[in-house]
Amino acid sequence: MKYTHHNNELNKNHIGKTVFLKGWAAKVRNLGGLIFIDLRDRFGITQLLIKPGNAFYEVALKVRNEFVLEAKGVVIERESKNSTISTGEIEVEVIELNILSIAENPPIIIANETDALEDTRLKYRYLDLRRPVMQNFMIKRHEITQAIRSVLVEEGFYEMETPILGKSTPEGARDYLVPSRLYPGHFYALPQSPQIYKQLFMVAGFEKYFQIARCFRDEDLRADRQPEFTQVDIEASFVDMNDVQEIVEKVLVKTFKKVLNVDVKAPFLKMTFQESMEKYGNDKPDMRYEMLIEDYTEYFKTIDLPLFYGKNQVRGIILEQGLVTRKRMDQLQELVKKNHGEALATIKYSEGQYTGSIVKYLNETELKGLYLKEGNTLFLVPGQFEQVSSALSALRIELANEFKLIPENEFKFLWVTDWPLLEYSEEEARFYAKHHPFTAPVDPEVLKNNPKDAMAKAYDVVLNGYEIGGGSIRIHNQDVQKLMFDTLGLTKKDIEERFGFFVDALKYGTPPHGGLALGLDRVVMLMTNTQNIKDVVAFPKTQSAKDTMMQAPSTVDSVQLEELEIKVGK
To answer: CATH 3.30.1360.30 residue ranges in the chain?
Structure first.
C-alpha cells in the first residue's frame, strides 16, 4: 500500500474518505474488545480503531509498542476528542492492517517525557531519536542549516569543501591524529577548523566562501561542547571588521525570522573585551539581565578588614531581592572558590538592619556609604582581576538562574570586540595567540615593540551568554605574518614544517581578507531552547568523549596496527 497521508494531516474534512497510513505503534489499548492503536510517524499521531469481527482483528491483537504497521481505513468522527493532537477529532476505522516489522520491548520510553538516564539514551540513540521532542530538534537543525545556507548563497558566497585529512598544527586544542599506512610514522590531523584552507581560497581569488564544516578538537567536554562539532565557516576578501559583522548579522537576523518568526534587531550591540570582563566577569556576557560587577577596591582601602588585606582588587555584585540562607551561602562560597576566587564576603540590608559576614568590621557611616536598598545583598570577592572576574561571573550566573532573573524567549546578541592579540604563559615563558596565529594585529608596530599590549582585529558574536561565533581579519602581509610567528617563539624550522605552504602562498599576492565561524550546534541549541548540546547533535559523545552506542573508542585488530607500524604501550 502507498500511504496517502502523514499522521498529523487528517481532520473532520476527511471524514468518509479511505486513507492509507504507515508508522510505528506508539500506544496500544484494548478497551472491552475495541482495540485502539496510536500510529506515529515523524509528523504526528493518528488513532486507529479495530472492532471485534474485523478480518484483521487477530493481527491487531498481536501489535505491541514500536511495531511498524501499515493500515487502510475510513476516517470517522471520534467520540472522545483529544485536543492535544492535531488529529484529535477523528480516528481511522481499519479495513486492512499489516505488520511490517515487530519490535522487542524498548529499553527507553518513546515519548517526549522519558525516565531513561542519558547514558541509556545515548546507547540506544536510534530509539531516543524516535521521540517527537528529539525529532523536532533534528528537524529544526535542518531548517536552521538551510536558512543559513540560503542567506549566504543570496549574498554571493560559494559553498566549497576543504579536506578532513590535513596537517597537524598544534597551537590551540589538541589535534586528533590519523596514522598513515603508506607513510609509517607519519600522521594526518583532523581539522580543528578549516582556517588555513579557507584563507587559501582567498589567495586563490574566490572572494566569498562558506562551508558547513565538521571540526574536531581533543579537549575536555562540557554541556555546550563536543569533540566533533559543526561550524558555519565564512570567509571573504576585501572586507574589514564591520563588513564581516554585517554579513553575520544578516545571516542570523534572516535565520531567526525564517525558522522561529522572531525579529532580531541589527546592528547588534558592541562591547569591548575589557568592558565585558570588568562588568560581567567573562568574555561572553548574558545581556538579558543586569546585576553588573562593580569595583569596590577604593572604597575598602581605608577600612580595616582582614579578609581584604593585600588584595589587588575588591569587586562585587548586588542581588536586589532574594533570600539566601546560611546553608546556601556556604554553597555559594564553595562555588566562588571552585571558580578561582579566594573568598566570598556578604552584606545584606533588610528592615533597616545590616547583616552579613563582614558587617562587624564596618561602622554605620561606612555601611550607609554602600547605598544598599531594602532587600539588597552585596556579594564581594577580593583578589587578582582574572580570579575575581571568574568567581563573580560564575556567582552572577548562579544567582540569576536561582532567582529567575533571566527572561524567557528573549534573544540578546552582542559583539565583543577589541581583543588582546596575545596571552602570556608564565609557566612556558612565551606568548600564545589569543585566537590563532593568523589574526591581524591592529598595529604591527605595537606587536613588534610591545607585544603584551598588542590588540587584535578580532570579534566574537555572543547570544544569551554563549559565544556562538568568533572571527577576525587575517594577516595578508608576509612580513607581518613572520613577525607574528617570531613573537610566538616559532623557529624557522617550526614555521617551515607547520606552515611552509601557507607562508609560500602569501608571497603570491594575497588580498586583505577576514571571516568568522559560527558554532552551528550552539546556535541550534539556543534556538531550540535546550541547555544541552547533545540534544541537537544526532549521534553525540558522552561527557567522557565515548560513543556508547558504537562502543568507541575501541581497540583495533593487531593486523591493522602492524600495517600502520604502530605499537600500543600498556
So the answer is: 289-402
Q: Which residue has cell 548562579? A: 398
The C-alpha atoms of residue 129 and residue 137 are separated, in whole angstroms, by 9
**CA dist., res. 15 & res. 10, Å (int):** 9
CATH 3.30.1360.30 fits 289-402, yes or no: yes
Measured from the Cβ of residue 168, the count of other Cβ atoms closer than 10 Å reads 16
| DSSP label of 106 | P
- pTM of the full structure: 0.93
Distances (CA, A) of 403 to 339, 396, 398, 412, 430: 20, 11, 9, 20, 43
Q: Are 392 and 246 in contact (CB under 8 A)?
A: no
Q: What are phi and psi of 35, to 5 degrees?
A: -105, 125
- Peptide bond between residue 267 and the one before it cis (omega within 30 degrees of 0): yes
- 202 with 186: CB under 8 angstroms? no
| Residue 502 cell numbers, joined | 601557507
For residues 235 and 517, the answer to whether their CB atoms sit within 8 Å is no
At 46, the amino acid letter reads T
- Joined together, the cell numbers standing for residue 339 give 571558580
**H/E run at residue 423:** strand 422-425
In CATH, what class is 134-271+411-537? alpha beta
What gap in Å lies between CA 141 and CA 129, rounded to an integer? 13
Q: Provide the angle, in degrees to the nearest 10, between the axes of the packed helices 132-154 and 520-527.
A: 120
Residue pair 388/381 in contact (Cβ under 8 Å)? The answer is: yes
Q: Please write the tens of the pLDDT for every residue from 184-194.
A: 999 999 999 99
Encode pLDDT of 49-94 as tens digits. Answer: 999 999 999 999 999 999 999 999 999 999 999 999 999 999 999 9
Which residues fall within 8 angstroms of residue 95, CB to CB, at 6 or more apart? 18, 56, 72, 73, 74
Strands (DSSP E) along 5-84, which ranges?
18-31, 34-40, 45-50, 68-77
Residue 311: left (phi > 0), alpha (psi -120 to 50), or beta?
Answer: beta
Cβ 155 vs Cβ 135: under 8 Å:
no
- Candidate CATH numbers 3.20.20.210, 2.40.50.140, 1.10.340.30, 3.30.160.20; the one for domain 12-101: 2.40.50.140
pLDDT at 478: 93
Please, which pLDDT band fits residue 221 given cuts at 50, 70 and 90? confident
The one-character DSSP state at 218 is B
Q: How far apart are the first and last CA of the chain?
A: 58
**Per-residue pLDDT reduced to its tens digit, 103-116:** 999 999 999 999 99
Give the Cα separation of 448 and 174 in Å (integer).
28
Say how far apart CA 499 and CA 336 lie, in whole Å: 42
Whether pLDDT at 392 is above 70: yes
